[in-house]
Amino acid sequence: MKKRITVLLVTVLILVTMLSSMTSVLAAENYTISLDINPQPIHSNTQVVLTVDLIASADSLTAEKDKLVVTIPKNVVYGSASSISTSSSIGQFQNISADDTNYYVTLKVNTVLNEGSLLKGQFIISFRSALITEQQMDVSFNAKLGEAEDNLEVPFIHGEEATPGAVFSKYSMAPVNPENKWHQLSLQSSTPNRYELWVNVPTKQQLTNVSVSDNLPEGSYLIQMQLALGSEDPRNQ
Length: 237
Description:
Keywords: Signal. The protein is mainly beta. It has one helix spanning about 1-30; strands spanning about 30-40, 40-45, 45-55, 65-75, 85-90, 90-100, 100-110, 120-130, 135-145, 150-155, 170, 195-200. The chain has 2 domains: about 30-155, Immunoglobulin-like; about 160-230, no CATH class. Helices cover about 10% and strands about 35% of the residues. A hairpin with a 3-residue loop joins β6 and β7.
């Protein structure tokens, strides 16, 4: 009887030790991230807000796991990397890098926490979506921190002002007058007065000897013009 009790106690001790080890492993990896985008789907010429929620225990984040990287497709962003803005309650913005297809927005997460405390907050990224794409498409976003990762695929849809089959299409960041459907220019800032005139997209018709002209409102003047020719997407020029 004593022998059975001894064996039983040893077995219980072994089980307790194993459970303690498993608990330690889970605690060391006790952090999660989730990715959300508003609006869904994304329409052209729209303000987009991308939110990453992070929940992490004090012992789950280290100096080797302090980089939260969010991947954003270039072709969904209007303008350059400088047009992307960020804010966060869980760390400090570090940089925006890029390759041929994506922007990589990096946040250095705060890893200095009191023992037993919990880090909970958001990393918010906002940008204006592209004025036009050649076709409706699905765009993929990604958020990654250490072993934790979340992916989200969202449709990107042409704006209502796009005319299928049109040889000329004009897009602007300026608000539209609901009465006459004209874009309203700002007298305070030139930023929303920027527009793009696309020729032969997405119809890809064969055009020769084409002359393109446009009128400016009285009292205004052109401060910059960029011309992109060829089959390459003008936003990449």
